[in-house]
Prior knowledge:
By secondary structure, the protein is of the alpha+beta class. The chain has helices spanning 2-26, 29-43, 86-90, 108-119, 244-248, 274-280, 299-305, 392-404, 408-428; strands spanning 47-48, 51-55, 61-69, 75-84, 96-107, 144-153, 159-168, 174-183, 190-195, 201-208, 211-220, 230-243, 254-269, 282-295, 309-310, 313-326, 329-339, 342-350, 356-366, 371-381, 386-389.
Amino acid sequence: MRRWAVWIGVPLLALASLLWGLHRWIGSDDFRARLGAVASETLGAPVRAERLSLALWPLPAVAVDGLRIEARTPLSLQRVELRPQWGPLLRGRVQVQTLVVRNAVLPEATIALIGARLNQGKPAGKPAASGDGEAIDFSVLPRELVLDHVTWVAADGTRTGFDAAMTLDADGWPHRADAAIVAGAHKGAELQLRRQDAATAWQLQVRIGGGHIRGPLNVTLPAADARERRVTLKGRLQTEGVEVAALTAPSRPLSGSLQAETDISAQFSERVSAEALVAALRTDTSFTVREATLNGLDLAKAVTTVGLSRGGLTRLDTLAGRVATRGKAIQLSNLVASSGALAATGEVAISPSRALSGRVRVDMTRGKGGQVVGVPLAVGGTVNEPQVTLTRAALLGAAVGTVVMPGVGTGAGANLGDRLGEGLKGLLGKP
Length: 431
């Protein structure tokens, strides 16, 4: 009996001593300094940690407190916890079961710089996604991810605080995800993502602005023998009763209740960056906004003055049309707005820098006789500060019309001048 006790007790004592020593070493200032030096050299920026600790019960875990990357915009994480799986760990392989991040500040610019630094060691000239069929090792990803009060700092300085939790299946695809915006322009928004059986398909639901956005998302993976390793994303989302201003916050170029149907599509390589994914994304939306208010622009004033208009607002019963996005560029077409005596149609483009360009025609009923005055306008400025002006041809026509027939002739002349201008451009072959 004593022999068995010795055979069992000695290894257990040795293991306990080893674990105790490992615990002391990981928590020592020397180990923390060594780890910080290696991380600093790898990331190209000073890395500091206030404390490292190792726990073995009830689950093995490594925790880092006060982690900070000293960049132009510092990245900080108050606490990070890594919990590996017991089974693979006993076989000598580390597989993370849970990753927990608490009270973190993640600047977009700093993360981009770190990503560029890590990519410097990769072979030059090799595309991000090669056609050699090399599989992505999903085993390195945590099976559970918990983000507790994380703040994302966009490149323009905008801050968004959120909580999130996600679980991954064995194939590396999300099984379920939940997120809530707790601070920032979209505070109160909630997201749910649920996988449909074992397929690469999910049901998405977003609650925002008093309404919801929901619908299916499907991912089609390339065949095993495909030379081009391209992934296809498709989806169709229904938007019901969402306040438009909640989607565009903190900007409020438009407010009103939105109903829309959106088709989403994208094709991208298996190994794609977030920036490349945004560039590949295509959406086509048909929409209607009821009880809409166009902020920063007074279309009625633009008609009556037949000139430059900035500021003010336009109240509309409905605004309908189509929106197409190609990456960060936005095109609004088939726009139809109506409100009592005012109606407008046109097309407007929004560049990635949020600059506006386009043309609208505004018709307004005036006087007791119900006479309709229509004026063609060029749209310019930015989303936050839009402006409309007469085109040069329309402006010349308006001046001539005012001289020939004051009042009514102004709008009629503007229309005639605009049509003549378009005709001359077509005749001369100019775009």
